[in-house]
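Predict the 3D structure for this chain.
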Amino acid sequence: QVQLVESGGGLVQSGGSLRLACAASGNFFRLFAMGWYRQGPGKERELVASITGSGWTNYGDSVKGRFTISRDNAANTVYLQMNSLKPEDTAVYYCGADPRQLLRPLYWGQGTQVTVSS
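Done. Predicted structure below.
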């Protein structure tokens, strides 16, 4: 019964910024761990950032210091602020939800494309 919808992707120049949003349905959003994942051309899906229901965060090594994950429980929304973007950040970004508080989402959004030009 959980639905996730990503938005905010687009084309940006190297060094620029984007803010992604993931809007979730359901009545138990506060209890879910949420995460952002990405899959670049010819690459496997990887963790970008995650946040637990209590607010603890985790980041992939390649984005630490540049990306910030946050959540607005009142709005049932998770955000990913992406700064200092690099061409290697180009990927489809997916939002995932894990009611088990693990890093293996049971629910996924459809994805949003982020393209960083040099």
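The longest strand covers residues 91-98.
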